Amino acid sequence: MTALLEFQLVEVKSTRLITPHMARITFVGADLHRFVSVSPDQQVKLFFSRTDDAPEVPPRPADGDILTWHRAYLAMPDDIRPWLRAYTIRAHRPDVAEIDIDFVLHGDEGPASAWAGSAQPGQILGMLGPSPSHYATIGEYDWQLLVGDETALPAIASNIEALPDGARATAYIEVANADEEQDLATSAGIRVRWIHRDDQGPDALLDALRASDLPDGRAFAWIAGEAGMVREVRRHLVNERGIDKKAIAFTGYWRRDLTQDAAPTPDDVADVQEAQAAAVGVQ
């Protein structure tokens, strides 16, 4: 059985724009002193209430089985079951029991973006996590490749900040335009290339990667963002760059033309199975 992660309520302390379409929201909570960071790219599940009240979820099952809990969550009436979305912890300050989460703002197209665009101090969300990560079990490598769109930017930034002195890394980050770039804490061995989607089209990130000269040596690749892009980048790295499948961590954060609540496609299921198999292979 899989142990159920801790559920708690967190409260908005402050909000600020860090780019025109990225908001950083700081949360506090009575139970955040028990929050334990598990990896630079750690994620939590956030619950957004459909009402003005704090979100509620089913109680923890006696056996701690997360699948039992998830079935109970899905069985909640549609009008009260809170929306569920996954987000990266951008920063964790255990001394003051605070966390930061960055939200991409794309209007009212989804409940999370709509909420974040108007979030105010005192508002309450539910939080489950953090999720376990296989990031620390990737083995030996000479350099690291980080690839993603703006939804992956918080995790890429956290990954870069966690790199040890002397580490070599290259990041390819797709954002809408130059206004969405962020100052990242990089050292001499870390290179960041920004790809502007508005100027170069929807395949800009993959095109830039295909045209690039990557460093020599054994690489570990981390890819996240739109699921179709992640899939194509992974295929390119394996088939054209010769990177071992087991040396690639990948996650599709969102899907073009599908909502977060839509059922998984066969490609989605296959991606999850391959990611799990690769994670087992490097442990």
Features:
7 helices, 283 residues, 30% strand, alpha/beta, six-stranded antiparallel β-barrel, Riboflavin_synthase-like_b-brl
Structure description:
- This protein is an alpha/beta fold and 283 residues long.
- It contains seven helices and eleven strands.
- The chain has helices spanning 66-74, 111-117, 153-162, 197-200, 204-210, 227-239, 266-281; strands at 7-19, 22-28, 43-48, 83-93, 98-104, 124-128, 143-149, 169-175, 190-196, 219-226, 248-254.
- Strands 1-2-5-4-3-6 form a six-stranded antiparallel beta barrel.
- Helix 5 packs parallel to helix 6 (227-239).
- The chain is globular and about 50 Å long.
- It starts with 6 loop residues before the first strand and ends with a helix.
